[in-house]
């Protein structure tokens, strides 16, 4: 296989070789996977790329092929990211990692690279997620470090499973870890380290320090050593560093294959509004989180933060079954809805709604409660907002 060709979901990756790979969800239809592999191979040949990993950054099989975007990440970038994470977590050959995240996501693949560099053992568990089985593996194998997503933390808490004694760090990424989940997890002893990262940076750019485990207060993520951070004039986070992507690739609806490098003078502008507090990062909201309600500006990120605090104050254990959404309104343009699967808990929902409404401005109050059978989520547990809005409102 030539260096510019792609291998689909390889079992092993030689991190020093010039071979390219493309890692895709095995559940995607073959025709879609083949199309994406053609995109990766074509751009690799055109740009003369060697030693790269191609990973899908967004899109699903419910969307047309033209909407799935690939990102090219060099093996060198992965190694640099992994070295920085290892320094932050003080890993050594004595550590044992549990790899339970899909390797077609940087959070999963990153575990393997970090273990390689620290000469640590890795235990793989790619079976369907089951909190009891994973807890047993963590305990019996004396695992010391692993990576999880908030949904998995929620399931462990729901099952009332306490952290095994050997586990010293759980990196939580793939979505924002709510304060209520963090507090509940820490009460069960789980050493949770909230992180902030993205596919384009080969995983983490900021992670809570080990020292934060001395407290049960939700910590801020600390910038990793290999990355520079700044804000642009709009307040969006910009990143520069050697772990960033080489380029994007995408097939258009007319069949053309496009590739582009989104960086400007080495800086990648994200869709995230954050505040930089010394070496720490406080997430504020996504670019598309800012809305207008009857001409008044508001932030869904801020409203969800208040909503989470209310859930925590009510000692709620249903954080994965309730959420806030900006909904279309003929009168106001946008209004706030409470979306939930808890149709049989109307008293609790009323209390939640009333408590939240007391803490926000009048135009930001929950206007309506909408019930849905299931909240659509990605394979990493992220809410599929576009699909949810389409299911509820038809757009």
Helix and strand content put the structural class at alpha/beta
Give the beta-strand count. 22
| Major sheet strand order | 6-5-7-8-9-10-11-17-16-13-12
**Alpha-carbon distance between the termini?**
44 Å
Q: What is the general shape?
A: globular
Are there runs of 5+ residues with pLDDT below 50, and where? Answer: 1-10, 59-66
Profile the largest sheet: 11 strands, mixed
Using only C-alpha atoms, the radius of gyration works out to 21 Å
- Give the count of helical stretches: 9
Helix content: 25-40%
Share in β-strands: 25-35%
Give the averaged pLDDT, no decimals: 89
Topology at a glance:
Elements: E1 6-8, E2 20-23, H1 30-47, E3 52-58, E4 69-74, H2 75-89, E5 96-99, H3 106-118, E6 121-124, H4 131-140, E7 145-148, H5 150-158, E8 169-172, H6 179-187, E9 192-198, E10 203-207, E11 221-223, E12 228-231, E13 236-240, E14 247-251, E15 257-260, E16 268-277, E17 280-286, E18 290-293, E19 296-299, H7 300-313, E20 322-329, E21 333-340, H8 346-357, E22 366-371, H9 385-393
Helix pairs in contact: 2-3, 6-7
List keywords for this structure.
395 residues; alpha/beta; 11-stranded mixed sheet; 6-stranded mixed sheet; disordered N terminus
């Amino acid at each position: 296989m030539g260096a510019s060709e792609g291998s689909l979901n390889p079992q092993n990756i030689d991190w020093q070789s010039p071979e390219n790979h493309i890692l895709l969800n095995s559940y995607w239809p073959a025709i879609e996977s083949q199309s994406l592999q053609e995109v990766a191979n074509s751009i690799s040949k055109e740009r003369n790329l060697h030693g790269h990993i191609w990973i899908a950054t967004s899109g699903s099989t419910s969307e047309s092929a033209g909407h799935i975007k690939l990102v090219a990440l060099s093996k060198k970038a992965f190694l640099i990211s992994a070295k920085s994470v290892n320094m932050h977590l003080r890993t050594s050959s004595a550590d044992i990692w549990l790899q339970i995240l899909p390797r077609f996501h940087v959070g999963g693949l990153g575990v393997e690279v970090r273990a390689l560099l620290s000469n640590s053992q890795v235990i793989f568990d790619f079976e369907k997620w089951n909190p009891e089985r994973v807890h047993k593996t963590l305990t019996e194998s004396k695992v010391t470090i692993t990576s999880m997503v908030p949904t998995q933390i929620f399931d462990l808490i729901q099952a009332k499973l306490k952290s095994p004694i050997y586990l010293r760090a759980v990196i939580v990424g793939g979505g924002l870890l709510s304060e209520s989940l963090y507090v509940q997890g820490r009460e069960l002893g789980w050493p949770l380290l909230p992180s902030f990262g993205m596919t384009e940076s080969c995983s983490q750019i900021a992670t809570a320090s080990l020292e934060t485990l001395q407290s049960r207060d939700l910590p801020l993520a600390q910038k990793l050593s290999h990355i520079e951070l700044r804000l642009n004039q709009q307040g969006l986070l910009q990143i520069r560093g050697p772990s960033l992507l080489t380029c994007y690739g995408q097939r258009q609806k007319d069949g053309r294959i496009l590739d582009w490098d989104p960086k400007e003078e080495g800086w990648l502008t994200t869709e995230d509004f954050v505040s930089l507090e010394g070496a720490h990062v406080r997430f504020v909201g996504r670019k598309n989180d800012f809305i207008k309600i009857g001409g008044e500006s508001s932030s869904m990120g801020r409203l969800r933060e208040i909503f989470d605090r209310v859930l925590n104050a009510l000692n709620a254990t249903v954080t994965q079954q309730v959420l806030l959404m900006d909904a279309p309104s003929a009168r106001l343009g946008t209004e706030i809805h409470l979306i939930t699967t808890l149709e049989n808990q109307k008293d609790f929902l009323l209390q939640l709604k009333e408590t939240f409404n007391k803490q926000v401005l009048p135009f930001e109050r929950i206007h309506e409660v909408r019930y849905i059978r299931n909240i659509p989520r990605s394979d990493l547990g992220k809410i599929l907002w576009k699909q949810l809005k389409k299911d509820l409102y038809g757009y």
